Amino acid sequence: MSTSPRRRIGPVDTIWLNMDRPNNLMVIESLMLLEAVPDWDAVAQLIRRRVVEPFPVFHQRPEAASLVGQPFWVDDEDFTLERHLVRATLPAPGDDAALQSYMESRLHVPLDRAHPLWQLHLIDGYGHGAALFLRIHHSLADGVALARVLMSLTDGGPDEAPGQAASAGAAAAPTLTGALDNPDVVATIQGLENLEHLENLEGFERPDQPERRDGDEGRAASAPPAPNRSSPPLVGVGLRVARDGVGALLRLPTPSGALDAARLGVRTTQVVADLLFAHNPANPFDGRPSGAKRVVWTDPLPLVGPKQLGRLAGATLNDVLMSAVAAALHRYQTDRGESPVDLVTMVPVNVRPLDEPLPPELGNRFALVFFRFPSALGAPLARLSETKRRMDWLKASPEAVLTYALINAIGRTSPGLERYVVDFFANKAIGVTTNVAGPRSVRTLAGVPVTGVLGWVPGSGRHTVGVCIFTYAGTVRVGFMTDAAVVPDPERLLAAFEDELDHIVRIGRARPRRGRSRRADRPRAT
Question: How far apart are CA 344 and CA 390, in angstroms?
Fold first, then answer.
């Protein structure tokens, strides 16, 4: 294998390299399920040719800077592929529970920084098939890029070349380049000049909060309290740094034209105040993470029904699935005897062009937005309608542009300030929710059909619930990764999600509901 030059780790990648904690490791956990047992030697050769050789970071380790500054990626002189491949066999009966238990026993284990920060478990005994469990540090790349790397091991039909895989992280958001053609986005970037007066931000009602109507039940509980204007001064500094970081964008030609200063101020206040003041009220998912994790996932669920419902409701497939997640959060709260409230999650937004090959250095290119699940609402169709309204607001919002600039700015500060600012924003959410669109047709690994794919990005701060939505070959799987101390029973979330999806799909078909989830039998709101 040829050597690669020593190179400095980028500012955003440095953030994730510095953010490992014993109770929340910065490791992306991915899973590929196979119909049969492949030739593992052939799989190893695929890994070498399609992953290790084209992407140098898979044979490089991090090295701290000698004095100050960002660290480096350097070749691991002791690199062997065998060190990163772990062979394992599940105990009988080799079902999902056995595979989940195997993963849970390793999710708290940090990756060895003396060597490249990844590990692939080749697992036999999963029913009549096998599984690949891939652990990669977030500093190597973002979740969408790593999903593409994982799928590059597979082969498909003539319409899908090797490596064609994941398409997006969040609600269909434009790339950053495309966003610069949006006058609203340009307005927000130019309005960042107002960040000199962050301390003067007054309370406001975020546009994605529920519209208030007389008689609405559950909405009062989900309304945000008046914002606390005593935000930590370092966060204001960080946002001012972000303002300076997007200054170069203002020099690019855009169709913004003349912009009204008052409108700019209002728009910037909405976005910035959301970043500063959004938070979750008291809820069962709030607690100090312990480090031990639980993980569960659904069987493959057909996409035909959710898509049909989406067409009838004027909603997207993503709206339908996110609404079902909101229902799971709603029922978990009521099952715990608490009044349900809306809950904030962080949603990654891909800013990497998906029609271009991945660069050899990989790296992180994504923004984060806050999405408030309408989990206070009990009526399924009302919950779906509200999910769509909030998602539509996010798609048109310039929030992703601001957070992308902020993430890049944070990566140029000290590790202490990085951790402080990242925690400040992370602690406003219960976790991270990803939605990745995988290949539309079945792919094979070393000649063996892939039956499913899942992947969870790490949480930070006090995150306790990660949600993965992954569509593949006409089906969707949804997985929950929770902190074992705070949310020890993710099976309840899984059962509630499956019940809700079954329920709203039957509504879409205009047929009486028959039966219940095989996982739970609980009353539900209608």
Answer: 12
Handedness of CA 242, 245, 249, 251 (dihedral sign): positive
Neighbours of 162 (CB within 10 A): 14
Helix H or strand E segment including 345: strand 343-350
Q: Residue 212 corresponds to which tokens in the numbers above?
A: 């208030």
Longest CA span, the chain = 69
Contacts of 423 (CB under 8 A, 6+ apart): 460, 461
Average pLDDT, stretch 485-500?
97
Here the tokens at position 332 are 């978990």
Per residue in 427-479, pLDDT (tens digit) is: 889 999 999 999 999 999 999 999 999 999 999 889 999 999 999 999 999 99
pLDDT at residue 253 tops 50:
no
Q: What is the mean pLDDT of the chain?
A: 80
Find out whether 34 and 448 touch, Cβ atoms under 8 Å.
yes
% of the chain with per-residue pLDDT over 90: 56
The tally of CA atoms less than 13 A away on the side-chain side of residue 478 is 26
* Nearest in space to 396 (alpha carbons), one of 212, 203, 172, 223: 172
Highest-confidence range of 76-90, 143-157, 196-210, 399-413, by mean pLDDT? 76-90
* Nearest alpha-carbon partner for 481 in 14, 13, 29: 29
Structure tokens at 81: 């592929």
**Mean pLDDT of the region 59-76:** 88
Calculate the alpha carbon distances from 118 to 108, 151, 166, 181, 431 in Å. 14, 16, 20, 38, 23
User: pLDDT value at position 26?
Assistant: 94
Question: Going by DSSP bridges, is the β-strand pair 118-126/85-89 parallel, antiparallel, or unpaired?
Answer: parallel
State the DSSP code for 56: G
d(CA 435, CA 395): 14
Residues contacting residue 386 through CB under 8 Å, at least 6 positions apart = 210, 374, 377
| Average pLDDT estimate for 236-242 | 47
For tokens 């409230």, what's the residue?
A: 341
* Backbone conformation region of residue 125, classed left if phi is above 0, alpha if psi is from -120 to 50, else beta: left
C-beta atoms surrounding 514 within 10 Å:
7
Question: What does the alpha-carbon distance between residue 523 and residue 336 come to, in Å, rounded to a whole number?
Answer: 14
- Taking phi first (over 0 means left), then psi (-120 to 50 degrees means alpha), and beta for anything else, what does residue 3 get? beta
> Given phi > 0 = left and psi -120 to 50 = alpha, else beta, which region is 163?
left
**pLDDT confidence of residue 25:** 94
Give the Cα-Cα-Cα angle 509, 433, 219 (nearest 5 degrees). 70
CA 463 to chain centre: 12
Q: Would you tell me how many other CB atoms lie within 10 Å of the CB of residue 159?
A: 9
